Amino acid sequence: EVNGWEKERKYSRRSGLDNRLQVNAFYQGKPILVHGRVRDISEGGMGAVIPCSLQIDQPVTLKFSMEDGHECTASVLVRRCQGFHHGFEFISIEPLLRQAIARLCG
Questions:
Q1: Please, what is the Cα angle at 93 between 90 and 98, to 5 degrees?
Q2: Cα torsion 79, 23, 52, 59: sign
Q3: Looking at residue 12, what DSSP letter applies?
Q4: Which tens digits make up the pLDDT trace of 48-89?
Q5: In the predicted model, what is the mean pLDDT of the chain?
Q6: Residue 74 Cα to chain centre, angstroms
Q7: What pTM value is reported for the model?
Q8: How would DSSP label each residue in 17-58?
Q9: CA distances from 57 to 9, 20, 69 (A)
Q10: How far apart are CA 47 and CA 16, in angstroms?
Q11: Which among 45, 31, 29 is positioned nearest to 88, based on CA atoms?
Q12: Which helix (H) or strand (E) holds 72?
């Protein structure tokens, strides 16, 4: 069964993006910092590879750069996790970032 987020992701225009990613999360009640790579991005979220498995529905904060070098921060939920491949849904992002993503994916 495909949930609403997966269905929206399937039909969202995505753009490839290969940049460093910083993931701020909590593991067993303690803050952790993990580095990974952004793989693709859409107006609804992003796909990334990180060297650990996060929990589905876990809230995390992502820091990354867009193609123009603009540093971005986004609050997300983990929606998909297959090994080191993760799918994140944006909960809260800066309006300028949302506009930049729309231009990139348009």
A1: 95
A2: negative
A3: S
A4: 999 988 999 999 999 998 777 888 899 999 999 999 999 999
A5: 85
A6: 8
A7: 0.82
A8: ---EEEEEEEETTEEEEEEEEEEEE-SSEEEEE-SS-PPTT-
A9: 16, 22, 29
A10: 9
A11: 45
A12: strand 71-82
